[in-house]
Write a structure and sequence with these properties.
This protein is α+β, with helices and mostly antiparallel strands. The protein contains two helices and four strands, in the order ααββββ.
Length: 108
């Protein structure tokens, strides 16, 4: 009787493992992602000096169908041109703007 219960429990655990969702662990730390986003902003001549770092969120942690990414958001201080700047940092280290909100923040 004990062996049949143990066998049933082992099969249940194995079956549950095959249906478990994927967990996309970040390849960069939070600090690395923020630094990459800042380097991207500098390279694109986006002035974040009048903004503060408002949010850093890792997205698609449990989504097995979409690539995970860091979403880094700066919000304006007094004297800034737009409300927010959002940079997306991919697992491979590439970055891009989430929206065109920062076009007014570019400096030459």
């Amino acid at each position: 009787m004990k062996n049949s219960i143990f066998s049933f429990m082992a099969m249940a655990v194995l079956a549950a493992g095959t249906f478990a969702k994927t967990i996309n662990v970040p390849t960069q730390s939070l600090e690395q992602a923020v630094a990459m986003a800042k380097r991207y902003a500098d390279a694109e001549k986006i002035d974040v000096s009048r903004y503060f770092l408002a949010a850093a969120e890792y997205r698609n942690l449990h989504n097995e169908y979409e690539t995970p990414y860091w979403r880094i958001e700066w919000r304006m201080l007094a004297g800034a041109n737009t409300g927010q700047i959002v940079v997306v940092v991919n697992p491979d280290g590439t970055a891009y703007m989430e929206s065109n909100a920062a076009n007014d923040c570019r400096h030459d």
